[in-house]
Structures are given as structure tokens and as C-alpha cells.
Amino acid sequence: MKLKKKIKIAIDSPAAAGAGTQAKLISKHFNLLYLDTGKIYRLIANIKLTQANRYSHSLIKKKMLKLTMKDLQNKKLLSDEVGTMASIISKDKKIRKLVHAFQIKSAYHPPKKYNGSCLDGRDITYKIIPNADFKFFITANTKTRALRRYKELKDLNKKISFNEVLKSIKNRDKSDYNRKVSPLMRTRDSILINTTNLTKRSCFLKIKQIIDRKLKA
Ligand SMILES: Nc1ncnc2c1ncn2[C@@H]1O[C@H](COP(=O)(O)OP(=O)(O)OP(=O)(O)O)[C@@H](O)[C@H]1O
Ligand SMILES: Nc1ccn([C@H]2C[C@H](O)[C@@H](COP(=O)(O)O)O2)c(=O)n1
Predict the structure, then answer these.
(1) Taking the complete model, does pTM exceed 0.90, yes or no?
(2) Residues in domain Cytidylate kinase (predicted)?
């Protein structure tokens, strides 16, 4: 499918709300480059956790200059420990500046074969792609998100209890919503999608319908 013009989709969401699932489905359907920006912060968090002595802004700067999409596919980045550390290091203004260029390049200059780009994260709708053609704020209630993340971690054979996951999700919400630098928020122009009582498929159809309508208008 080829679109008349290239499009940019921006999605913000709290942890485990299903944003990545929807971003992947939408990107596949409309042939968009997909970037899970949380994975960049997770990659940096993993460096902090595994190479604490070497961790510095200059090391991260070097890593960001060489960053590829493949680097973000590392399964180690999926753990709760890495997610929690990502939430901590992402409060650092300097770190946010270092990850900016890769996100801008993906959003505004995706490879020619794509019809555009779709990015998800915490500050995408107002900081990274303020002029996005479509903006969504995807959420779900805390317990539902914790249960989904718990099941996901169990499938990855991680040793963690539901209560630990719930606590971690609550802490991450607190940290992501309340930080001073680029906090998670729903912008006035973002369409709210609450996935709590919706299947993955029905969420996808809802978002697709919104995009189709505007593209046809
Ligand atoms: N509508 C849904 N119904 C049931 N399960 C869902 C739904 N959407 C997503 N999930 C599941 O919930 C888990 C979290 O989803 P996903 O990774 O898409 O969230 P996310 O918002 O991208 O999380 P994060 O930002 O923390 O990476 C996954 O295991 C996914 O399969
Ligand atoms: N645009 C973004 C994306 C992510 N973060 C931080 C805050 C999150 O808690 C953490 C992990 O993200 P996830 O993989 O759960 O989407 O990374 C951010 O500050 N800005």
C-alpha cells in the first residue's frame, strides 16, 4: 500500500498499556518505520547496570552515534530491572539530548521504502514529533497493565511476582508522570485510547479507523 503523502504517527503511553503492540500493528498495516523509543533508554539503562564503572555521558554519546535498530532488539532489555533503571536514567536532561538525534532521524527521515514513521514513548507527541499527523495517548488501568506485564515476564521465564510487577508499574508511573524533564502527559491534541477492556485487535481497528478517516478526508 502506498499513501499519497508520508505520515508521522506519535504515541505516548504509561508502561505496559499496549502502545508497542498497537504501534507495531499500525506500522505493519501502513508500512511505517516503527521506533520503540523506550528501548533506547533501556539500552542505556542496561549499560548503567552492567558497566556501572564505565557509565558516563561521553560513553553514551559514542554509543548513540553508532546506534542501529538491531541494537534495540536485545532480549535483555525486556527485564523489569532494566525498565526501572530506564525510568531513572531518562530523568537526566543530558541523556535525553543524546538520544534526541536518533529519534528525529527515524521520525522525519525514515528509509524511502516506508510511507512514514510511527514512534512510541513518553514525550513523542509534544517533544519529538510535535507536528505529527496523528497523535495518540494509549493507556489502561494500573492492574490491567501490571497483569499484562506480569504475564509477559513469566513467558520470558523471569522470576518475579505479580505484586512486584504492580509495585514497579506504580513506581514507574510516578517517576514518568512527575519528572521535571519531558514528563509523560496527554496533550490536548492526542486521541485517548483506553485499552483496558479492548482486545489487541479491537484497539487496532479503532486506531486504524481514525487514521483511515483522516487520510480519506
Ligand atoms: N489490548 C490488549 N489486551 C491484552 N493484552 C495486551 C493488549 N495490548 C497489549 N497486550 C499485552 O500487554 C503487554 C504489554 O504490551 P506492550 O508491550 O504493547 O505495552 P507498551 O505500552 O509498549 O509497554 P512499554 O512502553 O512498557 O514497553 C504485552 O505482553 C502485550 O502482548
Ligand atoms: N520517549 C521515552 C521513552 C521511554 N522513556 C523512559 C521512561 C520509561 O519508564 C522507560 C522505559 O520505557 P518503556 O520501554 O517502558 O516504554 O524509558 C522516556 O523517558 N521517554
Answers:
(1) yes
(2) 9-210
CA proximity to 185, closest of 194, 177, 195? 177
149 alpha carbon – ligand 1 mean position (Å): 7
If 0-12 CB within 10 Å is exposed, 13-18 middle and 19+ buried, where does residue 163 land? exposed
Which value does ipTM take for this structure? 0.98
Give 130-162 pLDDT, tens digit per residue: 999 999 999 999 999 999 999 999 999 999 999
Ligand 1 lined by 20 (C-beta under 6 Å)? yes
Long-range contacts of 139-142 (CB under 8 A, 24+ apart): 139/13, 139/14, 139/17, 139/192, 139/193, 139/194, 139/195, 140/16, 140/17, 140/18, 140/194, 140/195, 140/196, 141/196, 142/166, 142/169, 142/170, 142/173
C-alpha cell at 28: 505493519
From residue 119, alpha-carbon distances to 23, 146, 163, 167, 200 in Å are: 7, 23, 30, 27, 18
CB atoms inside a 10 Å sphere around CB 45: 25
3-state secondary structure of 200: helix
- Fold of the domain spanning 15-209: Rossmann fold (3.40.50)
For cell 487496532, name the residue.
204
Which ligand has its closest atom nearest to the C-alpha of 23? 1
